[in-house]
Write a structure and sequence with these properties.
147 residues, mainly alpha, Ferritin, two-stranded antiparallel ribbon, 5 helices, 2 strands, 7% strand, elongated, disordered N terminus
Length: 147
């Protein structure tokens, strides 16, 4: 789907050198978006897992959402990208934890919308757009859980 550096690899022969030299074309911007989106999904999974540990009574509401984020990651091809954040969730702060998750979901939905406009590959646009819609839905659902 995305060529990245492998797709941009060219072999050139340079005068004065005994063999071919590998040169790299410009990085594929879709690759960067893919890695950032995958890292964000990993962050969301980690956040949900931390929130479940902090408030086990939320597990039945939060585990299905964490599983959906795993599905998002799989749809992205499970690209290697480490999570970038380390959210902490204080024990027994149900309201604060749900608010933090809602804010993360809203930010992720906005990131996906912004990314989709810049993506060149149509199939990738569709995946990222659907993931963003799902995350907006998660934010709305978390509002109902908080009540």
């Amino acid at each position: 789907m995305l060529g990245g550096l492998a797709g941009g690899l060219a072999v050139a022969s340079v005068a004065g050198c005994s063999g071919p030299i590998a040169t790299f074309g410009a990085p594929d911007p879709d690759d960067a978006t893919l890695r950032l989106t995958a890292a964000s999904e990993r962050n969301l999974i980690a956040a949900y897992e931390a929130a479940i540990v902090a408030i086990p009574t939320l597990a039945s509401d939060l585990k299905p959402i964490a599983e959906q984020h795993r599905q998002h990651l799989a749809a992205l091809g499970d690209v290697e990208s480490p999570p970038t954040g380390g959210e902490t969730f204080p024990a027994e702060d149900r309201t604060g934890n749900l608010k933090a998750l809602r804010m993360m979901e809203r930010a992720a939905a906005k990131e996906r919308s912004t990314a989709a406009v810049a993506i060149a590959e149509p199939a990738f646009v569709e995946i990222v757009t659907r993931i963003g819609a799902s995350e907006a839905g998660h934010a709305a659902y978390l509002t109902t859980v908080a009540k």
